[in-house]
């Protein structure tokens, strides 16, 4: 490799470290990693193999999940091979990281259905078309074929003490909550994925450091050059407090309509704007508008466009601006009204519970106060009955639920 070729490789790698919280193993700075990866490129004379594993434990992906997927796309654009591993085998156990109790084991049918939706949701992000840029692998390809001898070999590479050092296990052990033996296999199976695909780099959240380190150890055990780990921040949710999570209802789903996505991001708390721009867009941070409101609008449009295209996102923006100019008076057919799925609500249900579940109110007690104060409308009609209840979601499907002038959702079945 000539000096000029070396410089070009380093330049192509350096910009890939935007938004990276930690490089594993620890390196003084990203330039050192770039040099190491450039050396690996020169030695192997092939594109780097960049691994990202996703366990299809649920049906939906949100913007927090998209961060490593976007980084995977950045490596694709730099000419490297993205290896997207669908953890159809590991999902049957579920990653115990950060869990205070054992996860429910999924059936193969559940996992297969979730995996299908995952691929559909990441399609707008990744390059599925350019030859050699993407490998989609299912880890059942190799994990389902491991015999007892190989499993014993994997188990022999770690001690119980090392496993108990893992944050989730340590807490459960301290609190005397059960830890099942099959859970100890999870980091070993995820680590063996790196061996199976011969990963040069693995991407993950900061909560995945232990699992990525296991992958390095196993690669070394099996005679491979250990991978680098690039760890990215855990995205804070739209509430500005806790990590983005569907269970906390502070998420923006990749499959949500453009209007819903735009509306949620248009209200991003000021303290999260820079992080969202850095992790969810490719815009230059020093060229963003100074006004927080203009930043919110730009963020909402930029992210919605990634997943829905420019036309649909512009329509969502125009409808939202029209809604704002009307003083929050909701047109019941307005495309800017975000949607809330009633599938997460158990019926029969009282309206104040739905107000809390949809995040229109921070709590059911606040929802009661809003109803008592006349601040709640359903399809334009003011609600005064605190105990108003509905037997089935069909009674509410398509209706707009509103609190005050600026908070509203369209209820969908």
Automatic annotation (TrEMBL):
Record motif 'HIGH' region, residues: 56-65
Residues spanned by motif 'KMSKS' region: 243-247
GO molecular function, one term: ATP binding
Keyword set, alphabetical order: Aminoacyl-tRNA synthetase, ATP-binding, Cytoplasm, Ligase, Nucleotide-binding, Protein biosynthesis, RNA-binding
Chief location category: cytoplasm
InterPro entries: aa-tRNA-synth_I_CS, aa-tRNA-synth_Ic, Rossmann-like_a/b/a_fold, S4_RNA-bd_sf, SYY-like_C, Tyr-tRNA-ligase, Tyr-tRNA-ligase_bac-type, Tyr-tRNA-ligase_bac_2
Compartment(s): Cytoplasm
Assembly and oligomerization: Homodimer.
NCBIfam families: tyrS
Name of the protein in its database record: Tyrosine--tRNA ligase
Organism per entry: Crinalium epipsammum PCC 9333
